Structure formats: C-alpha cells, structure tokens
Amino acid sequence: MKVDFHSHVLPGIDDGAKDIGEALELLKMLKSDGVDAVVATPHFYIHRHNVEDFLKKREQSASELLKAMQGESYPSIVLGAEVYFGSSLSTMPIKELCIYGTDYILLELPYNTFSRTFLNLLADFVGGGYANVILAHVERYFEYNNEKIIEEILSYGVLAQVNCESIISQRSRRLCLKLIDKGLVTLVGTDAHSVKKRPPEFAKAEKIIRRKLSDECFENLMASAGGIIG
Length: 230
Ligand SMILES: [Fe+2]
Prior knowledge:
By secondary structure, the protein is α/β, with parallel strands linked by helices. The protein has helices at residues 20-32, 51-69, 94-97, 116-127, 147-155, 164-168, 173-181, 202-212, 215-229; strands spanning 3-7, 37-40, 43-44, 76-79, 82-84, 104-108, 132-135, 159-163, 187-189. α8 (202-212) crosses α9.
C-alpha cells in the first residue's frame, strides 16, 4: 500500500485545496502516482484554533469531499492534522488531534533556532505520553538548527517525516536521503497544498528513493505508514 502521510487535500479548511474541485484534482494526481491512501493533515494552530471548532470544520470538509468522490476511484482518506507545537498543547484534548484511529500526532515545529527552553518543553511533551509524536517535514528544521540539535530531538523517541518536494529538490535531496538511509526518517508525505503552486509529487520522490537508495527502502517507508494507519 502506498501512503501519502502529509497533505492538505481537504477543501476550504486551511491554505490547502481551495475548493472541492481542487481537492478532487489533487486526489486524481495522487491516484495516478499510485497512492492508495492519503493522510489529510490540515493545519491546526494552537494559538488560533480551538479543537472543537477545528474538528467540526474538518468533519464538514471531509464529508463534502467524500460525497463528491463517490462513484470514482480515488485514494482513501484518513483524517489527521498538522499540529503546531506550543506549550499549551498538553492541556488540549490531544487524542482528538491524532491521526484518526491512532495515537500518533503529526507536529509542526517553529521555523527558528530552538532555545534550550523550547527543547525542554518538547522533550517533556514527548515524554509525557500524550501521543506518539511524528515530526512533520523534519528536513526544514535543519535550516535553522544544527544536526546535533535535530538528532537530540529524534533521540526523545519521535518519528520523522520528510516531504516529497524536498527529496526532489537538489538543495535538500542529499539530507533527506541520508535521514531515510540512517532510519531516522520513516515516513514520507507530499505536503500537497495546491495543483499549481505545491502539487503532490509522490511518484518523482518514489523514483529517487528507489534509484538512490533501494526498492526495499521505499517499501519499508510504505510499510511504516501502513503500520500506523492500519
Ligand atoms: Fe503541511
């Protein structure tokens, strides 16, 4: 089973698909790349959203999309969220923000250099047993933090995901492949937002992983995703 573990295909809920038409277009592109299941991870910002409203909006968006998908063959959709990490997260109903039917949460970290205070907060959250943490597009945090800091975070016992576009980009390919090869990254996602500006590029990334690492490596990534969403 091929799984896109990070996407913004749900329409009208965040800066992803703007309407049903675009959502269906994105799903068609994923289908033609051989993707069987898409984890839909709209942004959840702890300072801006409340969980109840977010879930209501997500439910509405998903049910409209599922209705429009009827009768056609599309990848299946698993509901999730890309949750921006902050100190108040531990006071929220975390289970509700986990990927549906699992105790895994996809966390987005701030795009800056992490302070010691921040690292301690994150370590406390991970160690608090609220959920199993998956870091969204871990490669991006290397732009602001040295390898040691990222390795420290990974040592807290979190999983990590990389974006397909970062595997494709010459600028970040080497880093992404190294992380996958070392087993530090076990999940991939398109982080697709739109048909034109940020399209899903699953097949291109798959090809690179298969060519530069191995078929087995790609199969292992898909097996990790399948193991989480069931
Ligand atoms: Fe995202």
